[in-house]
């Protein structure tokens, strides 16, 4: 996959940063991780399947191929947990924890067309959204995701696709990206609240955007009644490393301070068990949003903090 990326990358506006991205990716994949043989074995078995055409058949990134559901399920389950999706391969449905289509539906009519654009998907997970960006006509859609398992999940899905779309996922962190203004559209979805320094994250996003480039920022927020922002003392909805939960006004001011313009709040939605749910594709730990909320009040988390709400902001450099 990295060879395919390098070849395609060198034909795009990203050609000046291809070499460092390939080098960083090769370094990441060469780490000593005891799970890699299992993941590579799963992909080797998936490679025996006849690939098919990919499309978006709501809610699925769908591949029209004939598969042995039992064998394919065994291979894909070696790559659990599947957080992002859902996918459909032949008549096998891979029901991920998150219904990514619901998030996409909330923002797709507000963003600039992706046709012919250079797109960056920060914290892409297994590339569900990255595929959608490519299917929407991006010249190249690059997902960056430092968690290796999600990179192998992306490779597993990509192996099943004939005439693969212009989508790639590399094991790279945003702070490792060369500071060159090359991306027309940058998506940061579900990432900001994991940053100790949100202003630094916004600056790093701006550093890689073209002039007049568009940022699509999706993150957890709180209602104004709870204050300007909350910093959880320990966990939030049983998640580690949640550092900042701003109000929409506070987040708007962060974007202004970072230098973004034409800042628009296009959606606020409470996370529901329809969008985030436990499925047999997430492994032995089958807890999901229902388990993260106060059983007596779904407006609160188990820690007594405001229940998850997510906002989508769109702005320009």
In short:
Helix content is 29%, strand content 25%.
Report on the architecture of this protein.
The chain is an alpha/beta fold. Helix content is 29%, strand content 25%. It is built from 10 helices and 15 strands. The strands form 4 sheets. The protein has a 7-stranded mixed sheet, with helices on both faces. The chain has a 4-stranded mixed sheet with strand order 1-2-3-4. β1 and β2 form a beta hairpin. The two termini are 31 Å apart.
> Percent of residues in beta strands?
15-25%
Summarize model confidence as the mean pLDDT: 96
Q: Element order, helices and strands?
A: HHHEEHEEHEHEHEEHEEEHEHEEE
Note the main sheet.
7 strands, mixed
Helix content: 25-40%
- How many runs of DSSP E, i.e. beta strands? 15
In the predicted model, the low-confidence regions spanning at least 5 consecutive residues are none
- Taken from the alpha-carbon principal axes, the silhouette is globular
**Strand line-up in the sheet with most strands:** 7-6-5-8-9-15-12
Radius of gyration, taken over Cα atoms and rounded to an integer in Å:
19 Å
The helix count comes to: 10
Cα separation of the termini:
31 Å
- The quaternary state of the protein chains shown equals single chain
Structural class: alpha/beta
């Amino acid at each position: 996959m990295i060879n395919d990326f390098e070849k395609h990358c060198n034909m795009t506006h990203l050609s000046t940063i291809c070499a460092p991205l390939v080098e960083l990716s090769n370094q990441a994949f060469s780490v000593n991780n005891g799970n890699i043989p299992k993941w590579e074995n799963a992909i080797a078995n998936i490679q025996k399947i006849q690939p098919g055409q990919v499309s978006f058949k709501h809610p699925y990134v769908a591949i029209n191929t004939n598969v042995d559901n039992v064998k394919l399920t065994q291979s894909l389950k070696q790559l659990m947990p599947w957080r992002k999706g859902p996918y459909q391969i032949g008549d096998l449905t891979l029901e991920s924890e998150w219904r990514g289509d619901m998030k996409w539906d909330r923002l797709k009519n507000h963003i600039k067309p992706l046709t012919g654009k250079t797109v960056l998907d920060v914290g892409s997970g297994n590339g569900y959204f990255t595929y959608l960006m490519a299917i929407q006509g991006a010249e190249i859609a690059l997902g960056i995701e430092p968690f290796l398992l999600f990179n192998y999940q992306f490779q597993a899905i990509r192996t099943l696709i004939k005439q693969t779309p212009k989508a790639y996922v590399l094991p790279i962190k945003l702070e490792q990206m060369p500071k060159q203004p090359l991306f027309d559209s940058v998506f940061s979805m579900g990432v900001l609240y994991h940053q100790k320094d949100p202003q630094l994250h916004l600056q790093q996003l701006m550093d890689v955007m073209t002039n007049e480039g568009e940022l699509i920022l999706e993150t957890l927020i709180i209602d104004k009644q709870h204050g300007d922002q909350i910093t959880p003392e320990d966990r939030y909805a049983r998640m580690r490393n949640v550092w900042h939960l701003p109000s929409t006004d506070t987040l708007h001011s962060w974007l202004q301070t970072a230098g973004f313009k034409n800042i628009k709040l296009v959606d606020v939605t409470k996370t529901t068990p329809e969008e985030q749910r436990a499925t047999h594709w997430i492994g032995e730990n089958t807890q999901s949003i229902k388990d993260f909320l106060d059983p007596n009040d779904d407006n609160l988390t188990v820690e007594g903090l405001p229940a998850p709400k997510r906002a989508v902001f769109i702005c320009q450099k």
